[in-house]
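Onboarding guide, step 5: your first structure request.
Type a short instruction followed by the sequence, for example:

Predict the 3D structure of this protein.
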Amino acid sequence: MNPSGAGTSDELPGVAPRLRELRRSRGLTLESAAGRAGLSPAHLSRLETGRRQPSLPMLLGLARVYGTTVSELLGEMPPERDAIIRGAGPTEAAPVGPEAGGWLYRQAGGAGRAMQALRVRVPYGAEGDLVRVHPGEEWLYVLEGGLRVVLGESVHDLGPGDSAHFDSLTPHRIGALDAGGASLLFVHTLLQSPVAELCPGSGAHRL
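The system replies with structure tokens like these:
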């Protein structure tokens, strides 16, 4: 890449119009996208017109903002993914997979996507007092049992059919309400989370 960041280069053909197209498709103004990526609007404008070439940190930041990957920004075609994930049949009732602090995880969605979907079994008393804060969003849906979700200073007791959707930068704690534990569906924005490498396939993600 051009070390000075100035001038026009053909080292990354197609990146400039792709950056502009992604920003517009996400409904973001130049100012809002630049602010989220830690850039000035003028600098982002120069990236979108090809007058500057983005560094890798800039590409990583913009990929997170647009909910995509650096590979897509560079125009690389990802391998085709299967949209259907089959259940495990009768044995599915017994959770298997990565385990962290007593929590059991089973991947419920496709790997390598912007969102990570999991089925989680939360035993009673396991890490219910552990406060977590990290970038991204989380959505959970209670399948069985009772779940206590603490968001900042707010305490919410959820039962089957209840759900929660929140910004992960809000300090949060999650724990089972009774001895029977709880089961839930859980989705988080993988690309926005610096702990993404701890998800199934590379270990266990802690909510």
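Each response can be followed by summary notes, for example: Residues 70 and 76 are 9 Å apart (CA to CA).
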